[in-house]
Each structure stands twice: as C-alpha cells, then as structure tokens.
Specification:
With 837 residues, the protein is mainly alpha-helical. It folds into 5 domains: 64 residues, no CATH class; 348 residues, Na+/H+ antiporter like fold; 55 residues; 163 residues, no CATH class; 136 residues, Jelly Rolls. Helices cover 75% and strands 5% of the residues. It starts with a helix and ends in a 7-residue tail after the last helix.
Amino acid sequence: MDIVLVTTVISAFFLVIGVAEPLAERLRLPYSVILAMLGVLIAVTATFFLRTTLTDALNPVAEAILGFPIRSNVFLYVFLPTLLFQATLDMNLRRMLDDWVPILMLAVVAVVVATFSVGYALSWASALPLAACLLIGAIVSTTDPSAVVSIFRSISAPRRLARIIEGESLLNDAAAIALFGLFMGFVMLGVPDPSLGDALTRFPVLIAGGALTGWVAARVAVWIMALFNRFELAQVSISIALPYLAYIGAEQSIGASGVIAVVAAGLTLNLTGPGRLPPQTWAYLREVWKLLAHWAGALIFILAALLIPRLLEEVRLGDFVLIGVVIVAAIAARVVILFGLLPLLTLMRLSPAVERPYRVAILWGGLRGAVTLALALAVTESLRVPVEVKRVVGILATGFTLFTLIVQGTTLRSVIGWLGLDRLSPIDQALSRQVVAVALQTVRADVARTTENYELTHDIVRSEAKRFGDKLEKAVKAAEDSADILDRDRITLGLIALAGHERDTILARVRERTISARMADQVLSDADRLIESARSGGRSGYQRAARQSVAYGRLFRAVVILNNRLGLSRPLARMTADRFERLLSQRLILRDLGVFIDGRIRRIHGRRVADLLTELLSRRVEMVETALEGLRLQYPGYAEVLERRFIRRTALRLEEREYMAMREDGLIGAEVHASLMRDLGARRAAADQRPRLDIAPQRTVLVRQLPLFADLDDAALKRLGRAFQTRYANAGDILIQKDSAAKRVFFIASGAVEVQSAGQTWRLGRGEMFGQMAILMQTPRRAEVRAISPSTLLVLEEDRFRRLLRRSEALQQAVRASAEKRGIEPEALLSGTRDPA
C-alpha cells in the first residue's frame, strides 16, 4: 500500500478521534458508541464508493481504508497492552485492596458464569460443538471498561462502588482472554467436548505464569529506571517498553497469559514507581500513558468497527436466532451476578451494598466493544479453525456487540434518567443552595473592592449592584428555605468537605515536595477512605476511618509474624519507617485543617457544626500524636532524623522558589539559573533518600530504658540486649494462653497488656514484666495475657531469666512486689535464686 495513502488514512482516523468526543457530548451518547458508529459509517461509505459507478475519484482512498492492514495481532499486541497498562497505572490500588474480594469475585466469577451460560445455551440451540460454543461465550463475556467508567462518571456514583466496577471491568478482560486462549486451543485441536477438569487445570497456569512474568519484568524495569534518575525521557521510554515486553514474554516464552502479565506489570509499577522515581517524572509518565491510552482506545474502536461489515457479509436468517440466544444468555448471566452474587457478598460483609437502581444501570451498561471484536477476528483469521465455526463466531460476536452499542448504548442515558440517578439528593440540593448563597456573598464583597479600584462609572456600578443584589436575595431566600437539613446531615456534609480539603492539601504538599510521593499515595488513600466512610456512615464512619488510618493493618501483622517467627526483620523495618513518615505527614496535614473549618465550614453549616468538627479534628490529632509517641519510645532518635529531613526538603523548596523569582525578575540569567537548579536537584535527591531504620540494635536502648535493669552496668546491659528477643504485638493479640508451658518471661518496652487469672483482671504497662510467676513456681500458666494496644516486648528465655534474677536486686524486688499482689510468699519463689556467693 502506498505510504501516502496510509498516512492519509491514519491522519483521517485521528481527525475522527478529535471530532468524536465533542460529538458524543452533544448527542449525549457514550464516546465508544460514537467511535463505533463512525467506524461502521466509514467502512460502509468506502464500500459504497468502490461499488458505485458514480465516480472513481475516491476509489484509491476507499481501497486504502478497506485494505488497511487490520489483524487481530495488532489489537492484541499493540493496542490491548496499552489500554490495560494505563488503566492499572490510574488505579488507587491501596483503596482497591480494601475491596479485593468483590472485585475478584465479579471479575472472575462473572466471566466464568457468562462463558458457560452463553456456551451451553448455544450448544442447546445450535449444531456447533460445545468447545466452539464456550469459545463464543468467552469472547462475549468481557465488558468495555471505558463505557463502564463513563457511566459512573455521568451518574456521580459513590467512589467505592465505582472503584469496584472499574476494577472488575479491567480484570475481566484478563479472565476472558485467558478463557479464550483455553477454548481456542480446544477448537484448534479438534477436541469436541472439553472437560471442566481440563479447564481448571490449565487456567491457573495461565494466570500464575502471567502474573510472575509481569512482576519480574516490572521489578527489572523499575530498577533500570531508578538508575537513570536524572533522565526523565529515558525513564518514560522504559515504561513504554515494559507492557509489550511483558506481554510478548508471557505469550511466546512460557505460554502464559500476556494480559495477566501486563496487568501484573502495571500493578507492580503502580505500587513501586512513586517511591523509586522523582514525583515530576511519575506525574509526567502517567500523563504520557493517559494520552497513549486515549489514542489506543479510540483507534481500536474505529479499526474494529471497520471490520463489522466484513464480518457480517455471510449472515443468514438463522444466525439472528443465535444472536438472540447470545443476548438473552449473556444478560441472564449478568442478572445472576448483579442480583444474586452482589447481594450475597453484601450479606457476607465482603462488599458495599449496591442499591437496585445502580445494579440496573450496571446491567444495561454492560457494553461490549473492541476487545470482543478483536478476539472474534483472531478466530476468523486462524487457518486451523473450521470454516463454519469461524463464520458463526464472527457473526455472533459482531451481532452481540452491535446490540450492546446501538440498543443499550443509545438508551443508556434515558435509563439512567428513568432510574433517577442523574438527580441530586434532597440533601445535596439543599447544600448547593447554601453554597451558592455563601459564595455570592463573598463575590459581592470582592466586586465592590474591584469597582473601587477601577473607579467605574457610578450609574454602571449602581445598576450592576442592584442586579447582583436581586440575585443574592433570591439565593439567600432559597438557602433559608432549606432549613429541612438535619443537623446530622450537616455534620456529614461538613465531614465530607473537611476530608475533601484534606485531600487537596495533601496534593498541594506533594507538588511542593514537602511530602514524598511514596507517602502521598498512602495518605491520599486515607483521605479517600475518610470521604467514603463519612458519606456512608456519617460521624461514626468518619471516626472509624480515622482510627483505621493510624491502626496497624493486616500486612503489618504479617510482617510482625515474619520477624517474630522467622527472624526476617527487613520487611518490618521498612513498614515501621513507612509508619513513622506517614504519621509525620498526617500530623503536618491535620495542623492545616482548622483554618478551613473556621473559614469555610462555619459559614456554610453554622457554628455548632464547625465546633463539632473542630473537636473531631482534635481527637484525630491526639490519636496521631499518641501513635507517634509510641514509635518514639520504641525507636528513639529516628523521628528526629525524619523531622530534620522534612526541614531540609522544605528549605530546598523555598530556595527553589527564590531562584525562580530571581529568574523571572531578570536578576539572574538562564545559565546561572540552570547551574543553580542542577545543584539544587543533586541536594534534593540526597534529601529525598529516607534514612534506613535498623530495628535490630534497638534492643539495647530499650533495655536501658527499663527501670528494672537500672542497676546493671553498661557491659551487662549490652550482654542482656543480645540475649533478649524483640516481639511486636497488635491490640488483641494473645501473648500467653492459659495452661500453656512456662518457658519465657516478657518485659513491656512500650504498650500495655491485660492479664486475666482466677476471675481477676489487671493491666500492666511500660517497664513491667509478666510470665515470671509460672517459671518460678514451675507450674503451667494460670493466666491469659492479651495485648490491649500495639506493644513492643522484650522476651527472655527461662534459663537466662533465672541467671539475671540472681544478679539483679531490682528484678528481685519486682518479683517480690508481683508475688505479694497475688498473695504468694515471695521468699519461697526467690529461695532458689540466691547467688551462691
């Protein structure tokens, strides 16, 4: 094909992309539907000009369009990795981990249910072999992510619900293509009835192999990108190579799922990239990928739509019946998931409640698109698939896709309006009226100052003031008529606004580089959780999310177990350092929120709500300070190191601002400015490196802080520090079980525990010990000990404890006091511990 014609066609495609978005907005249709329609229109028009005798002038262009080299490999190896990779980079993964159960259930179970529902329905209604029917089921089981995202943006769905559906729509591509590869192999090999056992055996291999390939590729890519720390374009270029190498490596090297490899690579880069790359590089990288995905998503729809007339050339009357079977079976499978599985997950408290109108919108919004057409094209291109199977696959996949795009896509907004999802709730309507009234009052004061500064004509000022005053009066009256907002609702709305401002403040601090990008991801997740919890649970939900933001999570518990049982301290040290920096970042952000409450929330919701929010904010500050103090007790000096690092980064930001101001004022030239910025960049790179927290040597410091060992000299303290084992416990962990063998004594370095014995309960705190009575009495333990707060414990084995007890008078006194408290004769316990000398 002539290069000029190819260039012309490609340019025309980009012109269509540019026109499609504003056209979709004007016609109030999904963007993907407009692209598909334009693609079909282009193909039909080109076919018309080739077959008509009206003119031959446009024949070369029409031939170039219809002969454009569109193959399934172009979709699967070029466009699909781009779309999947960008979608994973754009995800808030830490928030999605909160909902991993419903996301995986919807992504995997929904695809399997749809595949087998469509497959067995077609097997009953046609003469096709079961393997071919299941292949068609896998092809039509994946929804189009872009359509789903646009739906939820248009109806302003709750963030958590939108996140679950977006995650499902991304991952179901991977599951569907994995199933497609599985059944494609059965069709090509001529196996008529694949057993479920065969499918279940091969499916995990596709998933696990792809995930491992993607993870390894991403880790290598991040390592290389970190080496090129000062070369932004080089880092972005490596990121562009990553998904394609992961896809090809998985598909061609180990026979695993390339889609899973791309998703795993994107997830790995999303988690590790912000901590290894400079913030401006990470932001630029995401912007580049957003543009690439926009182009790839549009091109894949247009090119796939060009194939529709070709795929439908051999359609027969009976094929329409089979298309109807596919439509009914696919919708029925989605009904089972939305109205059966989702409510079940809600009852099991694994998923947020999804209201019926939202489920109906999701059902009708399950559009199919380019991925379905690309998979169908891959079947029609294969020389090893029977001709009749190729014909039916192409027609059924194309017909079902057209139904979802033309019937469901064009009526989607009407369905949303019929469900009432495009209207504000009464509370939001009342709030908007109040916001307008407060904003107009501020605008009136600003306009008055502006007119004074510019000395405008008196008549003009008076006429405009009267016009604006009438508008303000109407707004105030509308706000006063909204007195039906309950105080509870005002508090909820105030908390949502406060959490939203907290999120904006975090973003501002990240841009200033006061907060590292690594920590920004975590504190932004905390802010998102606060917004969603306040929206769904009001004050109690907000407080619950606030407590969760400073609590030790499941992953921290896992690394604590690794440290306590296997001696793997590095993960614990890293997560503890993260916790240090996260709490310091939270404290920095919370200090700035009081002004927002006084300046904004008080004016909109009143003094009572503002005072309550101030009290809740004070409690959050106290929680963060308490958590920080606990870490300072465990690791004295490390908080000071991080605070010094924060001061250095702040000073560098201010220094950069001064250099930029001097450059703009013409006080320094471009050469001097560039030299200063290079030096600043080197110092900033050094300041961005967080000092490593080594938790192993802290035992000696902790031992030195315990009053029980105050009478030991430095040499004895060092020996004792080496003898102790450090154990971390979360609130609720059982440290000693009743009737267990007595082998160790525990000393509380920080935190608190609760002891239950013989119907009595008492608490022990920092500097106290437990577990010694059973050892000295040589009996099984009669008490159960449970941590009531995150605690650091020093553990000493029985023989070392007895030797220490013989030498330490302070320890003997502590044993006597503990024995007397329990009514035990202390001298009987200590009789065997006297030093022979």
